[in-house]
Amino acid sequence: MSSSTAGDGPTEPTARPRSPYIDTLRAAAIVRVFLQHTVPLGVLTTLLPAMWVMFGLAGYLTAVSLRRGGAAATVRSRLRRLLPPLWMLGAIGVPLMLLHGWHAFTWTDLVPWVFPLVNPPGSEWGAALVVALWYLRVYLWFVLLSPVLRWLFERAPVATLLAPLGAAVLLSTVVRLPSNAVTDVIWSTAAYGTAWVLGYARESGLLDRLAWPTCLAAAGALGAAALLRAAADREGLHDQLVPVLWGTAVVLVALRARPRLDRLAVPLRRAVALLNARAVTVYVWQLPMVAAGLWLLGPLAGPPVRTVAVAAVLTAGAVLCFGWVEDLAAKRSPALLPAVPAARRAAVDAIRVPSPVTRG
Fold it and tell me: What is the pTM of this model?
């Protein structure tokens, strides 16, 4: 998924108090992604559509950065935090795929491993190394577009919020795009764009001015539309618009909420801080480690709890081995484990002063 999220790595240009709620929600989304790859239960996706939540949180943190540090510093810092963990994965994964017979490889295939404007390619053997990297590609595009989206949001917030969702509806019902690298970018920008801009709405204070009954009614309408679409369409729950509607509904409620979580138990608080400090590393390595765990267990895989435990140990090992890359990217001294504060009493969301935005 700054305080990084899965995919949301970059720190703001200047130090700021941390929000326990934002950090906890991001950590929960990271854990949900890991569990979905080890114990794929549909109920997990329903309760916490992690990708939409992570893009919503990333949009919020990007908006904070844009306001505090400006467009150039924000884009630069987020690229610096996003790309090095990918480069480390590529430095290990690409040679391994070549050793295992990646005969379709050409030198141009390295370009997306350096700057993933399209999905980094891989071999059939190395599928687990590349399947989840689409998230970094989508995140990169949002980072590059973030100054423009912020400019549009400040002038027409409601229109900017609704435009991506409206585009997703059109692309699912009226316009059928062919499947290729360019249309993947178009679809993902539409599918997750409203979640990203909802992060801007939280940071600006626009969501605070939305009364809870109105918020719940809007989320309920989106959820009902998702259920009706799933029931009416032949593709059912596999229809690409269903998760967009549902995920946007959940993000709307999640970002409107501002619970005080500054009294979390110390072990939980430290676990949340550790996940946030190593979020990009956890994200890029968790699926390869799940695959490695299944290979190691073989016929002994047995109960799901055993698979989860082995995958968790292997992922933790990968984080210990490669997490220091995030320290270097954040201009910190590299360490096996990042230093995390013993206490986090600053609940920044509870004391934020909303900035004015134009209604559109």
Answer: 0.88
